[in-house]
Amino acid sequence: MVAIAQVHGPSDWRGGEIGGSSEWRFPLGAAHRAELLAAVRAVEAADLPLTRISPETFALPALGPVLRRLTGELMDGRGFCLVEGVPVEGMSERQCEIAALGIGCHVGGIVPQGPGETPLRHVRDVGVDPSEPTSRSYQHSGRLGYHADPTDVVALLCVRPAKSGGLSTIVSSAAVHNEIVRTRPDLAEVLYEPWWFDRRTGDGPDSFYTRPVYTVHDGRMAANYGPDYMRSAQRGAHVPPFTPAQLEAMDVIDRLNNDPRFALTMDLRAGDMQFLNNHAVMHSRTAYEDHPEPELRRDLIRLWLATESLTAPPGQHAPIQRARNVRGGQQNAAPLRGEEPRTG
Question: Domain containing 276 — which CATH number?
Fold first, then answer.
């Protein structure tokens, strides 16, 4: 059993203390936007597939160094950043996809997502019932519980916001962890033990796996939490029911995640691109109401990224299927930090 102690550093923050700071915002200037548009046009002119977008095929001489600084803030700083001013207005859907991947590939390797191993997903309401055991959260408009996606970084480019709602809220995993260690060390021990998760790939035993909520590796703490997928794992015939201590631990972590002292809310507007370090930050979304017109409905482009600065902590189950970074057309093996993709 790892010695459980509070972890400190720049990733230990509270929303009320840093919400007004500009240090996590990266506004794009006119030259950056022009460079992005030129790179999008170059990819279109070369008729490159999305899987061939790389730092070499999507050159950003001026913006690239900015994005590399952003990566440093993500992995060694607060764990989140917001790029503002991506020129999505007037772009086609395909051009927005190219722009998202072009920016993202300068931050980390693109990790294919879900069925079909696509390089990106559109987060939009397609009428899926969120109560269905195989539903994905990118397919409906309901509220999402706080969770961490299974790669190093998740990025969201807002193409269009909802008519109302759909706010992004984030919390520092370290801050919540430290509060639990300080006030409920007995439950902190429970959260370092293996928990059952659901991949939502079917009803067979391969749809379920175990891992701790909290792990520490090389002095870094990583959080692996997704209450919806932990609760739905209870449908597994071989999955034991929650213990009273586990239920209490989930209640505590959910309460702290939703505590206004810890949460930071972002109202993503068109052209905002949010980057989150999944090891250090948990994220949620409020329910939203969409416009009736299809062309006005909420649309975000989601990327999963792997960086070279982190490796999966030991003791986590190796993924059944390894993700692949796509760089310059080369498929290079890169592990997901947990198990199979489970969130959406």
Answer: 3.60.130.10
